[in-house]
Amino acid sequence: MNENNLPPCPECSGAYTYEMGALLVCPECGHEWSPAAGASGMGESEGEAGVIRDAVGNVLADGDTVTVIKTLKVKGSPTGIKAGTKVRNIRLVDGVDGHDIDCKVEGFGSMQLKSSVVKKA
After folding, report:
1. Is 95 exposed, middle or buried (0-12, 13-18, 19+ CB in 10 A)?
2. Which pLDDT value is given to residue 65?
3. Residue 55 contacts residue 115 (beta carbons within 8 Å)
4. CA 37, 38, 42 angle in degrees (round to 5)?
5. Average of pLDDT values for 67-84?
6. Helix/strand/coil (H, E, C) string of the chain?
7. DSSP-assigned beta bridge partners for residue 32
8. Which residues form the Protein YjdM N-terminal domain (predicted)?
9. What is the pLDDT of residue 48?
């Protein structure tokens, strides 16, 4: 049924992929990839899956400094972490529940943050 002979989705193997600009998109799982990455097989898309990006799409790395973009509630704290707080020397981890940044926040101590609530400083 894929009349343009586009490759199946590398994530879910869905056959209904379509082109959107320079990317291929799977409507079944929402995965987006470039045709060059899809042609080389699963190896390249797995390497890209390990890349952690901030809220605006910048690639994060160990040791980066990030800024919190929205106020976060913290159990046991009446104020939480305010938007604009800088966090230095982050470590990228495979955390629980999407928390992929391990860091020390001044005034709070060690904790894990989601990359979707920070931007690279």
Report:
1. middle
2. 95
3. yes
4. 95
5. 92
6. CCCCCCCCCCCCCCCCCEEECCEEECCCCCCEECHHHHHCCHHHHHHHHCCCECCCCCECCCCCCEEECCCECCCCCCCCECCCCEECCCEECCCHHHEEEEEEECCCEEEEEEHHHEEEC
7. 25
8. 6-34
9. 55
